[in-house]
Amino acid sequence: MMWFSEGPRWNWFLNEEEVITLKSRLYLVKTMDRRAGVKRCFELAEPQGIEGKRVFVKPNFNTVDEAPGSTHNDTLEEILNQLKERRPAALGLGDRSGPPPTEDVLAEKGIPELAARHGAELINFDDLPEEGWKAIGPEGNHWPEGFKVARPVTDADFLVWTPCLKTHQYGGVFTLSLKLAVGVVPKKGTDYMKQLHGSEHMRRMIAEINTQFQPDLIILDGVVAFVDGGPATGTRVDTGVFIAGTDRIAVDAVGLAVLKHAGTKPEIQDRGIFEQEQIARAVELGLGATGPDDIEIVTGDDESEALAVRLREIIVQG
């Protein structure tokens, strides 16, 4: 199955006159059971447009560390189960790791076997040919020479995005749905990661990668969070939540509210959610919600609603 073509379906930078305010509906599930949480997210979100389409899943395989260091296999497997039930024409998943070699991370996590069980094509982005990357120029962004993005992500008919809930100790501050995009930029044979981590604009650059694609479904696994440290290891807290939606800004805003509710590091705890540079730049680029009033949290049970009430308060307070 060819996962890339000459025409990606999402490739633009918005200028200020083109920014659109969106009302973003998110679904929140309170649970410590990953498989049940994923299933409930699909039931609440009722994603359309999967049957007969090329569906691609982008996990968090940065390292092999225990979730939330990387996507939990139970979460990934249940996502694949739910997608298969909706009869896609093709199912794929892929990522690139770093600093560990992608091949080693995939093997140690048992991902080749997991993918094979579900008939999903596994793509190691490190092995993509030159035509498997879309080159983006530096105009309108903070990347000195522009950047490249993996075409299996930009060209999928239906893109599923699976972030974890965690802080980031190397300049990103937090790594949720916006930060997951770093994995679609190549590491092998480039100095993009050196450019990113050495720049004062790192958090803005993270947001800018996201202009090249639009997830059709985001499922954030927040069963366990890092409230300090990260992205591979950190201070663990059982937060027991899944967040689903299509808006990366809204998902990250609610995710940050969960971290604030749990008690996190000062860079998050003491700063307004929409003042965070990743989110502020994403708002400038028109990638989703522009403030608390644009976010609607939908739940399906009393326990989830009780948490949602508190999270709404935190988002409004900043």
Characterize this entry briefly:
This protein is of the alpha/beta class.
What does this structure look like?
The chain is of the alpha/beta class and about 325 residues long. The chain has one domain: Rossmann fold (3-Layer(aba) Sandwich). Helix content is about 30%, strand content about 20%. It contains 11 helices and 12 strands. The protein has helices at about 35-45, 75-85, 100-110, 110-115, 150-155, 190-195, 200-210, 250-260, 265-270, 275-285, 300-315, and strands at about 25-30, 55-60, 90-95, 120-125, 135, 145-150, 160, 165-170, 175, 215-230, 235-245, 295-300. Strands 1, 2, 3, 4, 7, 8, 9, 10, 11 and 12 form a 10-stranded mixed β-sheet that branches. The chain has a two-stranded antiparallel sheet with strand order 5-6. Helix 1 (about 35-45) packs parallel to helix 2 and helix 7 packs across helix 10 (about 275-285). The longest helix is centred in the last third of the chain and has 16 residues, at about 300-315. It is globular and about 45 Å long. Mean pLDDT is about 95; it is low at about 10-20.
